[in-house]
Each structure stands twice: as C-alpha cells, then as structure tokens.
Specification:
The longest helix has 17 residues. The protein contains 7 helices and 26 strands. It is an alpha+beta fold and 428 residues long.
C-alpha cells in the first residue's frame, strides 16, 4: 500500500507544470512596454499585456503553452477599443466585436474554429447597417438575400473538373481534340452562368460545315455570316461553308478553344450593341454544337435549341450572380442580363448602378461610371438582353460589387445582386 501511495505521489508531482517565468520589455525611458510569462519550453503561457510609453494598455491576451487561448483585447494608443475577441487552441472562436477607431461603427460576429459561423451585424452607433449569416466562413445570407448560389470552393472544383474532362483522338479527324477542348470551354462558361452543360454533344455534320465556313472566310480574308464565293472555290464546299457561316459564331485570331473567350467577351465596338455571340453561347436550350477551323479562322455552330431551359430560369447573367473567377471576366467586358420571363424594356427606362463593397459588404463611394447602358433586342440567344459596362471596375480576388438594375426609370429594382471575384479557374 505504501508503495502504491508513493508511486501516485510521484506521478502527481511530475505532472505539475513547472513554475512560469515572468518576462518584461521596457521602453527606452524605462517605462513598461510589455509583460508576459513563459513556461519551461519558452512558450508564452498566461497573460500578455502591452503598453504605450504613456502607460495606455493596447493589448490584453491569454495564452496556453504558446497558443492563443481565451480573451484577446486590443486598444488604440488613445485608448479606443479596436478588437475584443476570443481564441480556442490558437483559432478564433466565439463572439467577436470590432470597432472602427474615430467612428461609431462596429461589428459583432460569431466565430467557430477560425471561421465566421453564425450571425454577424454591422452597426453605426445602435443602428444596424447590415445583418448577415455565415456558415463555416461562407456568407450565406446578406440582409435577407442569398448572395452566392454556389460556394466558392464547390464552384471552382466543378469548373476545374469541366476543363479536366478527357479528350479522345480520332484517326479520321485530326481536329477532334481541339473540338472537344472548345466544347469543354463552352461548358465551362455555361456552368459558371448556371446553365445546362452536361451531355452536350458535337455533331459531326456541323463540325464539317464549321470547317468549311472557316475555309471560306479565310479565302475571302474576312469574317462574314453570308460570305460570297471565293474565286476558284469548290462549289459544293462553298455551299457547306455558307450554311456553316450562316448558323455559327465566327472568330479570327485565336485557337479554337480560346475562341469561346472571344465570344463571351463580345464587347468591342462592333458587337457591344447586341453581344450576339455571347447570347448564343448562353442560350439555355443549346445542347448540340459543332466547331471548325482553318488557320486563324474558326466557327462554332450556334443555332441549336434541342435542349430545354430550367423551368425556374428567369434571367441569364454574365458575369453571373455570386463568385466569378478572375480569368473568366475582365473589366472591358460588358455585363449582360438576358430576360427570359419578362418583356423587352425601353432603354430610356434602364437605370444601372454598380457599387464597390467594403470589407463589411456595404456599398462604398459613388456608383461606378458606365460607358454603355442599353437594351439589346433581336433574336440572339432567344431573349432580349440588358447590356451595360463599367470599364474602371477592379477585377481581382476578394473584390466584390453590388449591382442594382431598374427597368422603370429607377423607381424599383428589378435586379439586385452581388458579383464577387475569386481566384482563377486555371492553376497554371
């Protein structure tokens, strides 16, 4: 019995942590700058405090064996509150309050294991400016609306999987791989914009006509949807090319897969008034297509409606609502909203405002200047379309904008959504 008690006593004594050692740092005039304690391994353990030369405390933090664990409080040199939060095992956890020095603005939020999780509010004095709900670091509700139809990580994973789809060589078709890559890039943009993309097919007869269309355009030295017959050109081949050109998007100067980026841009002076190439790419009913090329000329068969649009679809936006990879949009590209369940509004009733959002998801400054804001009619892609552009928009990961669109002269907002730029799809 005595031996057992002795062993237990020895175990208890060896499990007691060694006495912490107090540390401090002084300002040049000898006043206290910081004080804390460390354990036997030299890790901060316990309370750490920091002070200004005038004796104002700017930090009060709790540590356990070198990790932040417990309260964390920060103040400015004049003594204003900056940040009151909590840590667990070196990760932010629990309630957090942040204060904007010199103003009455503050935020309160819930964190879990290092990520925003729960309710977050932004205040000006006691007035709530924004009420948000977060889940595992993702903003899922912004003032009563869903800002992101798809999580950023999910969207990027799906887009990258589309580009990584395998291609199959065909001994009878030396362009088979390039055609498939072009189809994958078209599917990429359709998935980005929430449109049907799976099961899309290349039609060999349309590939043939798109090849011929590219040859005719090259022989004439220009893009033309109703091309004249080039001198000495085979009549049968010309007829195939004419049919292809009349039913296709046409491109010059880029490889076949990258021609899709040109169609989605479509914002040069000769196309911005209708952005017809883009609207055909984003036709919800498209299920089949074809691609062809000849040197720098290429074609994409566009006139297909063999698929079906989702029943709940009312608009097709580009850039779409929510997360947008920076390599799939640029500031010189126009915005577009194809209207699938409403009539064609009047241009003189179209009012568009685009605001930069700050870190609290609040609009900041004045709306961006627009250099284009019109209604594009016609039958391109099957629906009328709103087209507008803010050429000074910053496109970079983490930059977000709020877009508000009125079609009744500014009385009400027909469209109100967030566009938030994120990391690129391409990892190269």
């Amino acid at each position: 019995m005595h031996a057992v008690l002795a062993a237990l006593l020895c175990l208890l004594l060896t499990s007691v942590p060694p006495q912490a050692t107090a540390k401090q740092e002084l300002w040049p005039d000898g006043t206290l700058k910081a004080r804390w304690s460390v354990d036997a391994q030299g890790r901060t353990d316990g309370t750490r405090e920091e002070y200004t030369p005038t004796g104002v405390r700017t930090l009060l933090a709790e540590y356990t064996r070198g990790k932040r664990n417990g309260a964390w409080r920060e103040w400015t040199a004049p003594g204003e509150r900056v940040r009151f939060l909590n840590y667990r095992d070196d990760l932010q956890d629990g309630r957090c309050e942040e204060f904007e020095p010199g103003t009455q603005r503050r935020t309160s939020a819930e964190w879990k294991a290092g990520a925003l999780h729960g309710e977050r509010k932004v205040y000006d004095k006691d007035r709530v400016l924004s009420k948000q709900r977060w889940k595992e670091g993702e903003l899922v509700d912004l003032d009563g609306r869903q800002p992101f139809p798809v999580r950023r990580d999910v969207l990027l994973s799906e887009l990258r999987a589309i580009l990584a789809q395998p291609t199959t060589e065909d001994p009878k078709d030396p362009k088979a791989v390039e055609r498939q890559r072009a189809l994958h890039r078209l599917q990429l943009y359709r998935r980005l914009c929430g449109l049907p993309w799976q099961g899309m097919q290349l039609v060999p007869e349309w590939n043939l006509r798109c090849d011929a269309a590219s040859e005719v355009c090259r022989a004439n030295g220009e893009l033309d949807h109703t091309p004249p017959k080039p001198s000495g050109f085979d009549e049968a081949r010309y007829k195939l090319g004419y049919e292809g050109a009349s039913n296709s998007n046409l491109s010059r100067g880029s490889a076949l897969p990258r021609s899709i980026d040109g169609y989605m841009d479509d914002s040069d002076p000769s196309n911005i008034d209708r952005i017809g190439h883009r609207r055909w790419c984003l036709n919800p009913a498209m299920k089949k297509t074809g691609f062809g090329s000849d040197a720098e000329f290429s074609a994409m068969w566009s006139m297909d409606g063999s698929g079906s649009a989702p029943k709940a679809l009312d608009t097709v936006c580009y850039p779409p609502k929510g997360h947008v990879p920076v390599d799939l949009y640029s500031a010189d590209r126009a915005f577009s909203i194809a209207l699938w369940k409403s009539g064609e509004p009047r241009t003189d009733q179209l009012v568009v405002r685009i605001w930069l959002l700050d870190e609290n998801w609040l609009t900041t400054g004045e709306p961006l200047d627009l250099d284009w804001c019109k209604v594009a009619g016609g039958g391109y892609g099957g629906a009328p379309c709103l087209v507008f552009r803010a050429p000074r928009m910053k496109v970079a990961p983490g930059v977000s904008y709020r877009v508000r669109v009125s079609v009744d002269g500014g009385k009400t907002d027909a469209h109100d959504y967030i566009v938030s730029f994120c990391e690129p799809v391409s990892t190269q």
